[in-house]
Structure formats: C-alpha cells, structure tokens
Amino acid sequence: MTTSAGTRKGEHVRIGFIGLGVMGTPMALNLLEAGHRLTVHRVKERSQVLVERGAAAAASAKEVAAASDVVVLMLPDTPDVEHVLTGDGGVLSGLAPGSLVIDMSSISPVATRDLAQRVREAGSGYVDAPVSGGEAGAQQATLTIFVGGAAADVDRAMPLLRAMGRTITHMGEVGAGQATKVVNQVIVGLTIEAVAEGLALAEASGLDLATVREALSGGFATSRILELHGQRMVEGAFEPGFRMRLHRKDLGLALAAAEHYGSDVPATRAVVSQMEDAIARGWDDLDHSALFKVLTERSG
Amino acid sequence: MTTSAGTRKGEHVRIGFIGLGVMGTPMALNLLEAGHRLTVHRVKERSQVLVERGAAAAASAKEVAAASDVVVLMLPDTPDVEHVLTGDGGVLSGLAPGSLVIDMSSISPVATRDLAQRVREAGSGYVDAPVSGGEAGAQQATLTIFVGGAAADVDRAMPLLRAMGRTITHMGEVGAGQATKVVNQVIVGLTIEAVAEGLALAEASGLDLATVREALSGGFATSRILELHGQRMVEGAFEPGFRMRLHRKDLGLALAAAEHYGSDVPATRAVVSQMEDAIARGWDDLDHSALFKVLTERSG
To answer: DSSP assignment of A8-61, as one string?
Structure first.
C-alpha cells in the first residue's frame, strides 16, 4: 500500500478523532493547531472548543471515518476500541481503503493484533500508539508515545504523533506499542508502591515525611515518582491525576500478558491487590498515589 | 556535655575508624585527607594505604578508642556493632568520657537506641549516620547520609560527615538515621523489583530491552534505578555493586520495623521472597539488580 493521503512534513491531513476525554480533547486540539482538518463526534462541553476552532462534528464513528484519511482513537478500554472500530456504524463501516487507524488508547496487545488484522483486511493500515504523561503531557504536547506497526504505517503516523508528543519510539510490529505501555504501567505502579510502602513505614517510625522525601532525593531512591507522587503522599493530596481504577485496568492487562507469556510478576500482583482494596474502599477515582492511603488508613 | 574535642571547621580531630571494608576504607581515606589524625585496626591489604598515608595501627577496638576523641564504625550488621562496642576489648572499655561514637553501619534502629544508651551512660555521645551511595559514593565523598542524634552530638559529627558525604540530613533523635536508611532500602529494593518485573515482561513479550529502557526514560517510569540497574539488566551485568545478601539483610530490618510499628509492606514481602530465591540459587554475592535474573531464569 503506497497510496498515502500525505503526512509529509507541513502537509495537512483529514483526521478523524474519536474519544474526546480528559486526554483526547487536548490531543485533538494540538492536531487542529498543527493545521490539520479535524472531524469529531460526541462533542460535549469539554470538547466544544474543538468545534469553535474549526473541527467538523459528525453523527457517528462511521461518518467520522468517511470524512477522514487518518482516524485517531483515544478510548478508555479494549471493549470501547473494539466497539468503535467493528460495531454497527463503526469506523470500519465508513473507512475508505488506504486509510490509517492510529489507536492511542491503552488496551490489550493481543486484542490489538486482532483489530489490526481486521483493519488490514479492509485495505487500511493500523498503528498502536499508547501514551504516557497524563493530562499535562497531553496539553503541552510532551507525551511519551510507544508505537507499534509496520514501518510504512508508522512513517505515515509520525508527523501527527509529533504534534502530540515529545519522546516517540517505534517499538516493533503491531502490538509492540501496547506491550511497552503495559511494561510502563508495571514499573510506574510498582514504583508508586515502593514510595508508598517506604513513606508509610517512615510515618509509622515517627519520621517527618517531608524531610524523608527530601533526604532520599539524590540517592538511589531518586525517581520522578518520589518527586511527584511522593509529594502528594506528604501532602495527602489525592485528587487525580491518574485514577486508581484506570491503573488497575492497565495492571489487569499486565497480569494477562504475564500469564500469556509465563512471566512472573509477584510484586505486581501485590500492588493489584492493594489497588483492589483501594477500589473496595471507594477510592477508585482518587489518584493512584492513594496506594499510600491504603497502607496508612487501616479499615474499620 | 559541652566539652568537645573540637570538630570546628578546619580543626583536626583524633578519629578512630573501625570497619575497613569496601566502604570503610575510602571513607577513612577521605577523613585522613581532610587532615584528621586516624587510628585504625585490623589493617588488611585493601586498607594498607591508610597506614602508608599516616594512620596509626592499634591492636584492638579498645586501643583505637583510647587513642581517639571520635570513633567511627562502618560494620556489616547489628551483632558486629554490638560486639565491637560492648564486647571484651571493645570500644566502650577504652573510650574516655566526653568522646563521640558515630555509627555509619546500617543496623537495627531499635538496637541503635539501646547501644546509644550504653554509650551515654559511659559519658559519651552517640550519633547514627548510615549511608547510601555505594562504593563510588564512598570514594568520591558524595555519600547520602541519614543522621540521628542529639543536636549537640550531630553538630560535633557534622564536619567529619561532610568529609565523606554530600547530602547529609539530620532526621531526628538517635535511631532516626537508621530508620530512614531502612525506608531508603525499601524504596530502592522495590524500585529495582519494579524495573525487573517490567523488563522481564518486556523480554517475554519479545520487545528489545535496550529500546524499552530508552523509551520509558523521560516518562513517569524515570528513576535512577531504571537508568543504572536497568542498564545492568539490559546487559546481564550482575557483578556487584551492592550485594543481594546485604540488601536482604536490610529488608530484614524493614520487616522487623514494619511488624514493630504495625505498618503494612506487602510488596516488600514479595521482594524479600525473590531475594531469598536468589540467595538459594547461589546469587547472594551478585548485585541486587540480579532480581531480574530470578524472574527470567526459571529454575530447573
């Protein structure tokens, strides 16, 4: 497939963007501000700004696809992506051959390979490009993006990804982006637990948390998470941020991948159990740094 | 106690240094090079350099103490410190009232409070000042040091600590330095496990480890450990560094402290179990980043 409704530098692309949430809205805005033509649907109050700045509103995912050469997805979970792509009135029912789907949601690597197969059979390309960096990264176009796909498809996606992110790495074939995101979420989740268990023990030992966090910075314990999430724990400030339930979902993908490949993840399993405890206590919409709260606020 | 065999800036102190291992030897050398008078004992090949540069060699811990105003300890474990301080021919049997003991070993915070009590009853001061930063930090005098003790004792110790370290924090009363070191080891151990479980899953998923490590750097997964220990895992380079069995010892202190204070450390317990697996497989003297090896090399 060499037809490419251009994504060379400076060229403007007809982009459909589906999934206008906390992350998707600022990401779509960055594409719009890079000069691309945007079609969206399900515009709510948060995403009204896109229409005000020139995005077209379509009535369905099918219509979004029909109006676009590249369709970007930024949805909550695997079933959402499956439904939007393959359901009645979904993207595949409107997509012209030679188009490109870029899925920036964080979903199952295994399901990703199946979906990519469906899209390819319809004559279009597929790239998985999940992100890390949160709302601030989405707003400032500084997201870290893990990319999976065939080289030609990735080349085509790259100029668009550059409008949304800063550190963009092609990890391998379709699914490799999602597999890397799963690895990222394992490391982030466990590092938060590391800081949470350490600071909870510090608090129990009668140490001053702010002094401990400061004293540890500069040594081997130094991490972005000690800096940012550690500060949240010191202050007891757990408004999100990245929600506990979404990280729990990502670690579900990690446990599935670990089982699939026979890889051992004993501490990750302990973190999942802590997250389930948090969710059972109604803290599903708190920031994931509330793992500290699970350790320090004993139940009943 | 206001008598202070001076540690004002520029003043030279009679220091006894006990524990001339991989860490202790370069630390003692830094004190010597700062112009202090040093007495040591149990000089081996590694520490011969100290005598060559002017340190006096004594026959026992008692003689070291008798020749010194400040005695610095850098020993492997709690029983070693107890023996050197309180045993026959130990420090307490030679120490003149008005002296100062600085224990830079990593030992039990609870035992530390008992030992400090014994030293105080003998009319001297006690400071616990465990370190982080490894052999390189000891050599370059860039150690992170966590200090516990009464303000006057800590003031007296501070100029000597500055000759050995860079980030030096007074954490609270006697034992607070050791308690902070325990917290540090929990966070470091769990962060290594975080990177190990992530990279092991990456390897199982068929991703290229070097690319994954690079791709994750810059996002929330960023840590000193992803940078340094992650590189060891990518290369399979597990010569120490910091030995598995010593980190296991430190986490034993963490489990004891957690039990003592009723603090929950579920993922730390999972890491201890992994470390015990490593030790059972004969990897006790490998670097602690060999936690990756435990996950990726299944036993027969």
So the answer is: STT---EEEEE--STTHHHHHHHHHHTT-EEEE-S--TTTHHHHHTTPEE-SSH
* CATH entry, B14-172, from 3.40.50.720, 3.40.710.10, 3.40.50.1970, 3.90.1150.10: 3.40.50.720
Cβ count within 10 A of residue B263: 19
Strands A131-132 and A143-148: antiparallel
> What percentage of chain A exceeds 90 in pLDDT?
92
Across the range A77-93, mean pLDDT stands at: 97
The pLDDT value recorded for residue A10 is 63
* Partners of A287 in beta bridges: A243
Cis peptide bond N-terminal to B16, omega within 30: no
Closest CA to B157 of B39, B55, B29, B70: B70
Q: Is the dihedral of CA B170, B220, A266, B281 positive or negative?
A: negative
Q: Where are the beta strands (DSSP E) in chain B?
A: 14-18, 37-40, 56-57, 70-73, 100-103, 125-128, 131-132, 143-148, 165-172
Q: How confident is the model at residue A208 (pLDDT cuts 50, 70, 90)?
A: very high
Low-confidence stretches of chain B (pLDDT < 50) are 1-6, 300
Percent share of chain A, pLDDT over 70: 96
State whether ipTM is beyond 0.85. Answer: yes
Cis peptide before A241 (omega within 30 of 0): yes
- Picking from B191, B206, B269, the nearest residue to A191 by CB comes out as B191
Task: Count the alpha carbons within 13 Å of A200 in the hemisphere toward its beta carbon.
Answer: 27
Is B40 touching A (CB cutoff 8 A)? no
- The CATH code of domain A180-299 reads 1.10.1040.10
**Residue A76 Cα, gap to closest chain B Cα (Å):** 20
Burial class from Cβ neighbours inside 10 Å (0-12, 13-18, 19+) for residue B95 reads buried
Q: How high does pLDDT run on average in chain A?
A: 95
B-chain CB neighbours of A200 within 8 Å are: 263-265
pLDDT exceeds 70 at position A137? yes
Tokens of B200: 């092991």
Residues linked to residue B57 through DSSP beta bridges, in sequence order: B40
% of chain B at pLDDT higher than 70: 96
Pick the range with the lowest mean pLDDT from A3-12, A45-54, B43-52, B107-116.
A3-12
Per-domain residue ranges for chain A?
14-172, 180-299
Q: Which residues of B touch A267 (CB under 8 A)?
A: 190, 193-194, 197, 267, 270-271, 274
Is A201 in the B-facing interface, judged by CB distances under 8 Å?
A: yes
Q: How confident is the model at residue A152 (pLDDT cuts 50, 70, 90)?
A: very high
Q: What is the pLDDT of residue A200?
A: 98
The reply to whether A180-299 shares the fold of A14-172 is: no
